[in-house]
Specification:
Helix content is 40%, strand content 13%. It has 19 helices and eleven strands. The protein has a six-stranded parallel sheet with strand order 3-2-1-4-5-6, with helices on both faces. It is elongated and about 85 Å long.
Length: 404
């Protein structure tokens, strides 16, 4: 029995690429019935991306697509055709949530905008995910993750003064936007439960990125001092909070409290630094950062990063060896979190297991889980149309005319 939070909630997913689909995926993990609408034929373009492994992308089941496609029923409908629009509206009339990430105004031109859906379904939660939002001079412009990282200023503070601007490696803006959208939809559903009213959600990748940089943006707005790239220094800019070389690799240390600093000195055997006027007080340390870091660095070269990581954390000092993605995924800590779901070959049609990430949290019971694997284009079209009351002859005619 599906006792998860969104059991019984119907979500109509008219999204593509990453941010929008990831929102619907998060809702599906929590039990929602998600129907994904794609164009007939090849479906959405991300299905065919082959950067990670061409063996997946060639059949329309790329790894980028499958990352966010579990727990969805997939239908192929040409919404630009009158018959296809009618199918979409019939689905939307019975949906709790509609998520779309078309450019501003595109849904309205198709006759599937918020007002169109609201007229049929006053209680609908309609989430519009765009690059820049549905207001302002950029509202009609499209973008991808890398463009928003550039436009927002995020790239300007990523890297060192010598290497910036740099893009963050993964598409963090896309996935953060997807999570923000799922959060907004959740809040709107909760609100509807109290008021009975539907809601329109205007959510953008740019706004999400600005919020991701909240402390940096707040500092600038209230001081007028433009932020600069700080390399591997922690956001606190504490003197001992950065990455250091060790005997075999880099070690990140974050020391923001006085007791952490004293524990660090104890572990490193550098208590004598407390007798040095340059380092005796926090204010003095901030005036002598290079000298303090040089002393710490010299000692850290005597052991491996793994050795220091163990010693520091046992002493209450936050620290971690800089790992590669494969190294991190091989750690017992990751395994203990049940963060990934594995679909066996028999469920996906591939010759190997498919592992995908779930939600970034756990419940004591009835939490996020993957029930059904990602589906090929249009796999569920007939079943969904039958549920809407279309006959076999109707479906045959729609397929012959290219609507589905």
């Amino acid at each position: 029995m599906n006792n998860r939070p969104f059991a019984g909630i119907k979500v109509l997913d008219f999204t593509r690429v990453l941010a929008g689909p990831y929102c619907a995926y998060q809702l599906g993990l929590l039990g929602a019935d998600v129907v994904k609408v794609e164009r007939p034929g090849r479906g959405e373009t991300i299905r065919w991306r082959t950067e990670a492994d061409p063996a997946f992308g060639r059949n329309g089941m790329s790894l980028g697509f499958m990352t966010q496609a579990a727990n969805k029923r997939c239908i192929a409908v040409d919404v630009d055709r009158p018959e296809g629009r009618e199918i979409f509206l019939r689905l939307a009339a019975n949906a709790d949530v509609v998520v779309q990430n078309l450019r501003t105004g595109s849904a309205e031109k198709r006759g599937i905008g918020y007002q169109d859906i609201k007229a049929l379904n006053p209680g609908v939660i309609y989430c519009s995910v765009t690059a820049y939002g549905n207001t302002g001079p950029k509202q009609r412009h499209a973008a991808y993750d890398s463009v928003i990282q550039a436009w927002s200023g995020l790239m300007s503070i990523t890297g060192t003064p010598e290497s910036a601007p740099l893009k963050a490696g993964p598409p963090i803006v896309d996935y953060a936007t997807g999570i923000a959208a799922a959060y907004a939809v959740s809040a709107a559903l909760f609100q509807r439960g109290r008021t009975g009213e539907g809601q329109y959600i205007d959510l953008s990748m740019l706004d999400t990125t600005m919020v991701l940089m909240a402390s940096v943006v707040t500092a600038y707005l209230n001081t007028g001092v433009a932020p600069k790239p700080a390399g591997n220094d922690a956001a606190s800019r504490a003197p001992a909070s950065t990455t250091f070389n060790t005997a075999d690799g880099l070690l990140a240390i974050a020391v923001n409290e006085e007791h952490q600093y004293q524990n660090l000195l104890r572990v490193l055997g550098l208590q004598e630094l407390n007798n040095d006027s340059r380092f005796a007080q926090p204010s003095a340390r901030r005036e002598n950062v290079p000298a303090l870091r040089a002393a710490i660095q010299q000692t850290l070269m005597s052991r491996t990063a793994a050795d220091w990581e163990a010693l520091l954390n046992e002493a209450g000092v936050p620290g971690g060896r800089v790992r590669t993605i494969p190294e991190a995924l091989g750690e017992a800590q990751i395994e203990s979190r049940s963060l990934f779901h594995t679909f066996p070959p028999g469920m996906t049609g591939f010759s190997r297991d498919l592992r995908i990430p779930l939600a970034p949290f756990r419940f004591e019971h009835d939490g996020p889980q993957a029930d059904t694997p990602p589906r090929p284009v249009g796999s569920d079209t007939d079943a969904v149309l039958q549920d809407l009351g279309y006959s076999a002859d109707d479906i045959r005619g729609l397929r012959e005319s290219g609507v589905i």
